[in-house]
Amino acid sequence: MSRENKMALFIVIVGSIAALIYSLSLDNSSDKHLSEVSLKEQIILPQYPPKSYAKIDIVQEYLQDLKELYESNRTVLPLRSDELDAYAKIAQEVILKDEQFLADTRVDGAIMHNDMMSIRAALIGSLSSKDALLCDDTECYEATKYNFATDTTTKAIVDVDNREVLSVSRYPSSKPDISLRLKRIAQAITLNAPEIEREVGAIKSKDISMANVKGSLVGSICEKSSHLCVAPTITDHHKQRALWAIIDLTDLKLVAAKWAGVGKSSTPACISERVLQNRHIMQEYCKKETTLRRGSWSLRYRLTLSDGLEVRDVSFNGTSMVKSAKIVDWHVSYKQLSSQLLDEQTEAYIGSRRVEFVEVDDGYLFGYNDAMGCPMFSTSVVLAFNSPQVRDLLDERGERVGFYLVQDFRNPKWPLACNYRYENRFLFYDDGRFATVGVNIGRGCGESALYRPIFRIDLASSGETLHRLSDSAILHTEQTIRDLPDYKTPYQVKSDSTTYSISLLRSDNKINSTTHITTFKESEGDIDLLTLGSCCDLDNDGVEQFIDTDEPIEDMVIWHVPRIKSSGEESKEQCWADTQLGSSGNFEVQEWPCSVGIELIMVDSR
Amino acid sequence: MRRYLPIVVALVAVAGLFIYVELSKKSTSELIEGLSRPKNCSKPPQFFDNPKVARSVVIDLSQQRFKGIAFIHGQDSLYSKQWGQYGHFGTYTLSDSGDIYLAPMPFISIKENTFDLQKNLYKLDSKSAKLSVFMHFDSVEPARSNPFGIISVLFDCQDRSLWVSAIDKSSYSTQAGRVMHVDLESREVIDQIDGFDAFTITLADTDHGRVLLAGSAYEPSLYAIPIDSADQKPIKLFDLLDSNKRIRKIKIIDRDKLLLQVVDFSYSLVAMSSDRYREEYVASYSGSGSWHIGLY
């Protein structure tokens, strides 16, 4: 073959391949799957409380300035001189004395968090025709402030020559371009976040760009849509990757971050707190198990489709304790005192949720069953928020006595009414105690609700019997024990190899629960359970369907169903959450968590 | 000079190939030129004997006060217990004879029959006001990892057929939904588009034929399916900026202008169905594949 023919053949082959790649790239833009995107990502979620960011110098200085501002009874944090030219300094002086501009900075006398964001020469496009006329011969500046508490931007046009405010406009649910100071704070949080440093080491690069927060069409990139959030981006040109971080400037914390390629699919506009969280949780905790070894403890854990966080194969000092522990449901019921005749046409809904109801003597109970689990592709309604976390377990004196594994589950709009938040906690003490705890942080639909979490503990030993300490009864068949006697430690479980004491844990010190014991069957909760029982029939936890009182227990599963009441009544709050204006000048969530649980204490191992 | 002819021919062939690919791309954007609302043939149910009332009745699927379907007229509501027996509904379509076809939806809790209810398409009869299962789809298989089944339904005035979408079997890594074309008389699936999760569907006329506009359940995106063409592959028109959102309702409000109702959706159970959990956007087509999307 001649040289020219070879070249022609080469051109045809290379050209065809190039055309094919180009054609596929067009197709791909309309046919992208989540998994393809996720392969290139490394998602980092917060692991430390927000106060850890307050230690960063620039954040500390900012918080100190806010504190001094409130102490001096002023309401708007001014811009510092390095952000202002000579005219802007005059404009700031004028605007911070203007009553109309400052009108939305307090509520019932309490100061709300307000920052000046920018003061710039007014552009003709930002002026009304009346202001434009007035500004024709004078120097006009546009001053912008942001109210973090109400998510409102205020703009004012200032005639600097005559030291006069020409107009003030407010834009609720609108976010401005942020100040240089806040931009530096966002960058500092990104560069110094311990989560990021832990994952990727200290970031040397200072090549940071900032996604524009203006144009609030998509709301906030944070889960809390009223928060001011930005997305600083740090590019690592050598490795052709970039770190996209989401920083919440209202709470001054890292919300989420991801390392990704610098390709087109990774623009900051496409990331949000929830999208990153969901992808990370699905890939790391819903699709696979995690093994944890710490101290004398060893276990595996995973997020289920509707039974919350599950720990499996828990062993202490090499002795197997528990095959599986989890909270499969939360039953929620509200009581309505009424002699009204009920039928399905009677209004039976709370918030925006239609509810099931059951008649009782003096009225009726209504409510629903909340399942917790994976945030996507699941039968859950209260969804995993952030990833499971391992934390130190401290006693009353603040001394470390073990560690605990915790998973937060929330309705997206918590703490708004009819949105719920639960935590699943597993406590591992250095002395060998193991506890499963359900934490309820409200808020529910009404001020008084009855919650019934359903705990399932599958013990690792076999041939167990349950010893009731109140009457020394030995139970060795499947059964339900209602209205437990007033004992904190009512049972012992004995097998050939071990003896455990069972303690009931409650934050309200009341004993009110039901225990069911069954023999292990895979279909009875070893794999995910669908919604169990009735929300409101207090004589039916749903576990009863698994009980055959004639069936001997060969491999014991303990079901514990405590009852706990919430209260939203002032000074008696329990299992409750509310939003209040805090000392920071921002609306802060106040929590009154309540908890219930079951603890296993190994008293004998042979 | 002749010795270079093979190279010239090769270059021309490659250039032609690129022009062909580019033209294919152009035809994609032309697909929706002249987007407009097709003629509406839907009629109110005949069980409303007062036509004035029938025209102003609101169909309530919010599941807030009533399970299933209810009709709201001012302060009054019309509801039958029988309309709640098949659980909760997500969407509906009205036929040219006033029959209402309904797609199911799982809501808050999973009960023993929840998955079975997702396998059916339902009909509220225009004359008798009786709610019944219109079609059962054995192929639809809701599961714990995706509790959804039939999710959307649309009456086609042109041939008195139904377009029905299902999103079961899809998983975190695979999209396995179907859009089915159902003959109303025989109750048989006459055509099917596989591998696409349509959360909502609506028909539109264009200069180049009819398209089925579909909001994806899998992505924050709007797609068009050229139903008159041999290749019925869904073509993406645009993405919403908020990647948590999914288009749940599409209304053609003017030529080249759509009203989109969007909700949060992640294939987990729906707890909130009221309007305050929905947002509305207007999407305007400005030609050459370009869309402008703004809050309504």
Are there runs of chain B of 5+ residues with pLDDT below 50, and where? none
Task: Assign the structural class of chain B, choosing from mainly alpha, mainly beta, alpha/beta, alpha+beta, or little secondary structure.
Answer: mainly beta
Q: What is the assigned CATH homologous superfamily of chain B?
A: TolB, C-terminal domain
CATH topology label of the largest domain in chain A: Beta-galactosidase, Chain A, domain 5
Assign an overall shape of chain A: globular
Helical segment count of chain B: 3
Query: In sequence order, what are the helices and strands of chain B, one letter per element?
Result: HHEEEEEHEEEEEEEEEEEEEE
Question: What is the overall shape of chain B?
Answer: elongated
User: How many distinct beta strands of chain B?
Assistant: 19
Instruction: Note the main sheet of chain B.
Output: 4 strands, antiparallel
Task: Give the low-confidence spans of chain A.
Answer: 27-39, 212-218, 264-269, 339-348
Largest sheet of chain A: 11 strands, antiparallel
- Spatial ordering of strands, largest sheet of chain B: 4-5-6-7
Description:
The complex is a heterodimer of chains A (606) and B (296). With 606 residues, chain A is α+β, with helices and mostly antiparallel strands. Chain A folds into 3 domains: 34-48 and 179-283, no CATH class; 80-172, Nuclear Transport Factor 2, Chain: A (Roll), CATH 3.10.450; 289-605, Beta-galactosidase, Chain A, domain 5, CATH 2.70.98. Chain A is built from 9 helices and 38 strands. In chain A, a hairpin with a 4-residue loop joins strand 28 (465-468) and strand 29. Chain B has one domain (37-244): TolB, C-terminal domain (Neuraminidase, 6 Propeller). The termini of chain B are far apart. The radius of gyration of chain B is 22 Å and the shape is elongated. Chain B is built from 3 helices and 19 strands. With 296 residues, chain B is mostly beta strands. Chains A and B meet through helix 1, helix 8, strand 19 and strand 21 of A and helix 1 and strand 19 of B.
